[in-house]
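Write out this protein's structure.
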Amino acid sequence: MSTGTSGIGQSVSRVDARPKVTGVAQFTGDLVIPGMLQGKVLRSPLAHARITHLDTSAAEALPGVVAVMTGKDIAGDGFYGHAVKDRPIVAVDRVRFAGEPVAAVAAVDEATALEALDLIQVDYEPLPLVDTMEKALAADAPRLHEVEGLELGLFHGLGGFRPFDNVCYYHKIRKDEERLDAVFAQADIVVEGEYTFPAIYQYSMEPHATVARWEPDGITVWSNCQHPYLVRAELADVFGFTPAEVRVVVSYLGGGFGSKSYTKMEPLAVALARQAGRPVRIANRVDESMVTSRRHNMTCKMRTAATADGELLARDVQMWLDTGAYADNGPRVVATAADAAPGPYRWGPVRVDAWGVYTN
């Protein structure tokens, strides 16, 4: 029963219910900014390849095209990443996953931008494919990133950062490890198994969309992102502004479920707006969003020791999470998975090892 001004026991209307059901709500893709151009992205058809030839001259000459951006235009400041600055805004000389941006076009309308994409000529030299964690962790696996080129990003305080070979992050938990084997050997019950779950795209009705405006004294971005303050901090870091000079506006969000967490399309839209000298809108199709974000797939080996009457004694866990071609928020996902592995229980010995693995 409700008393006084308490909301307990009362039905409370959603603040955004009426504008959404009446169609008044403007989502990011609905926005029209004065002078806005339409942006489109050319994506790699190959999962791992070297770019041997890239010719944008025909696209640049097409009437209505204002800017064509490639890796040569962003090589100086074009790498970003929350934990590891390993992701180029557009591929510089190599692609590491199918769907990676290779070039971007800003034009007066969508049809012109799409026509310009068709005029860009790209030649690729296929490279060995590392498309599973097993391949990535093999002793002779090709390295997807040169460790020397990686820099710590905004969240370098994550403990255990040590990129090597195709491991971008390692997280461990230890408690009474010296007793672990003895406890398992003496336990009445030992339950162990190997568990896997696949990568998925966290489908939402609204795909990723960003409108960016570049000005000499700052950036304004309209985006359907789930972490606007993190996006603001990263844009400031990448483009040399203070956070106070970057404004991120989120109107209505047509679903996210993690697929719009952290930074996704925003650096690309900002860099293209900077080159075009006008605001640029990039709105993904669903298939483009599916290669922009996805949940990690994981393999986990877990052992649990218990007494015959059900008292939990020890837990031993090894897990490998596929972060894809770039770290993104993978180190945080790995750390969170490892921290959750013991569960909300009292244990004796605990050993947890978790790796974030680069793949194509």
